[in-house]
Amino acid sequence: MRRSFVFGLVVAASAFGSGVAWSGDETRRPTDTRPTGSELAPEEFAKELAQANEAEIKLGRLGQEKGSTQAIKDYGRHMVDDHSKAGTEFKGVVKEKRFTIPSEPNAEQKATYERLSKLSGKEFDREYAQVMLKDHEKVVAMVDAFAKNGTDPQLKAFAAKILPTLQHHLEMARELEKKIAG
Predict the structure, then answer these.
(1) pLDDT tens track for 133-147
(2) What local confidence, expressed as pLDDT, does residue 101 receive?
(3) DSSP 34
(4) pTM to 2 decimal places
(5) Cβ–Cβ under 8 Å, residues 39 and 48
(6) What is the pLDDT of residues 22-73, one digit of tens each?
(7) Would you tell me how many other CB atoms lie within 10 Å of the CB of residue 38?
(8) Is 108 within 8 Å of 16 (Cβ atoms)?
């Protein structure tokens, strides 16, 4: 029996702007009812991951275009390159499973993009760095949980494979946020 529920976001990962506090140990605030990666059914995990990935590509392009510092532009390029490559591989995995996954970010991710697209200069850089940090915290938590406890062997293997790259993106986002805030 498939569980169904309404997501307000990603993953963020996996969605942006939720205000949900995720930490490395996957603790959640009492008001957060969104499942962790390990609680997601395989098709739901695939959906969340696909939306988060598409959002990172779109936001990466935005960072390249609107960033006022080379650090933001470089981070954006890195996101586009890595997430495009991962997305291509991921589509192969879900195609074998006959899952239908979204090819666009979810509504909240789109709203975050729209909000950021209206900013410029240092304000854009600061907000972009914060969004990248929060998004990667969420996605890393979700992917890590699914890699450890997911129920689909192929998706678990894919999650385990991409986790180091996502963790690297998170570390890069932390450094970027410090650099921009400082």
Answers:
(1) 999 999 999 999 999
(2) 93
(3) P
(4) 0.78
(5) no
(6) 333 333 333 444 455 557 899 999 999 999 999 999 999 999 999 999 999 9
(7) 17
(8) yes
Count CA atoms closer than 13 A to 29's CA, side-chain side.
7
List beta partners, residue 12: 14
Distance CA 52, CA 136 (A): 9
Say how far apart CA 180 and CA 182 lie, in whole Å: 6
172: containing domain: 37-181
Q: Distance of CA 3 to CAs 25, 114, 129, 179, Å?
A: 24, 31, 34, 42
The answer to the question of residue 29 being in a domain is: no
Q: Say which residues have a Cβ less than 8 Å from residue 154's Cβ, sequence separation at least 6.
A: 93, 96, 97
Q: Please, are residues 58 and 103 in contact by the beta-carbon 8 Å criterion?
A: no
Q: Which structure tokens are listed for 42? A: 């395989």
Flag whether pLDDT at 20 surpasses 80: no
Selected residue with higher pLDDT from 107 and 14: 107
Mean pLDDT of 158-168: 97
CATH of the domain at 65: 1.20.1260.10
Q: Is residue 138 a part of any domain in this protein? A: yes
As a whole number of angstroms, the distance between CA 59 and CA 35 comes to 24
